[in-house]
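[Automated response] Your request has been received and processed.

Submitted sequence:
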Amino acid sequence: MPPSGTGARLSIPDAELHTIMSTRRLLPLLSWLLGFFLVANIYLVPTRAQSPRALDLIGLGLGLWLVLRLLSGGVRTLPLIVLALLNLVPLCWGLYAYQQGLRITMLLSVRWLLAMPVGYVLLRAAAQESLRFRLLGGMWWGLVLNGAVLVLQYAGLEAPTIRLGLTAPDSTVVSIERVFLRMPGMHGHPNASAAVVSLVVPVGLYLYYQRRARLWVPLASLLILLVCGHVTSSRSPLLVAGLSFALAALTSRRFVRSAALLAGVMVVVLPLWLHFGPPGGRVRWEDTAHMSANTRDRLASSEAALDLAAGHWLGQGVEASQRELLDRVEVTASHNAFLQLAIVYGPAQGFLVLTLLMLLAVRAPWGIRPAWGLEALLAFQTCGLFCFEEHLNNPTFICLTTWLCLASVARLAESPAGRATAAAGLAPLSPGGLPDSRPARG
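Generated structure:
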């Protein structure tokens, strides 16, 4: 019989112990890669316009892993319930779309299903401090790559980005009244790429306030956002990221770091803004007639989407909802991601995602804290972005939303003592079922 007490842990066979320890050493690298490809969602077949993307392959691989974990009893009940609620309607619509030949709806539903394991692993990785910062490091550098792709396109070097699978072959430059040229970036449209790049601000701020990055990281994050705003002429990501920056800086209890950050902005960022003007040029921000017309069009499309959602409680799918919007307001977008869900999958789906994200985002004014501070700031930024564009056709935001919805429920289910994951049934990520010796977050 094996000895009792702590010595019983040493009865693991040498081969199995070697496998477990090797896997544990790989987890930081895998977390970094997951964060990187979450935002740098490259095209796996560069020559094809409809190429599978990195997150599709990652979702498939993690899906197989999640099934094996489920069969071995390694997945807790609460995350499975949340994932089932989030994906039941997309699953039903995906099956219906497959039968009816609705290709766009089917692909969107498949990406929601592939986001299930990705969101689950993101939650597990973010629940452990060492993996959380590796995950964020990968995200930050992936967002830098997004910015580099936009700059290369602006410089007329889009051909190398296509050959490397960084942009789609059919992506085109958007022109506004033949005055503004807007680069499509890695995500196929200026608004989509600018929204993804704007995540560099909350990621950089969290690393800085948690003492995992020096002052240059949040300052570089702001500069990256401003450069990308210039080449995409997208306004809403700049506004939302600015709110996230102000919220984090003003509510943080680390006053010395906030003072240093604000001083850095005054010395580095503000002079560049004054010299070059706002991103996209002053005309883009001072043309009140164009801004008023744009606002009216957005409100009209959102109002039409709300009316469509109220009349179709089970949703309409992508194709039918786009036709309805085109007939009513002569555009195919609702300019709101929550309304996008409501008209495609039904109002209940849109309300569910809105509620879960808002329950997490309302914690952002409490400041950046180790427990749920990252998720709260990302939820705040995501909710702001979702109020301006249909970002839930982007695999990056689908996976991010799945992660944040899981985090919202996990936070609500935590114990009064503040255990960040235990009461939600989420142990720190560790292979082989062994407990991790490092403390969980919180």
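Summary generated for your ticket: Residues 70-427 form one domain. The chain has a mean pLDDT of 86.
If you did not submit this request, please reply to this message.
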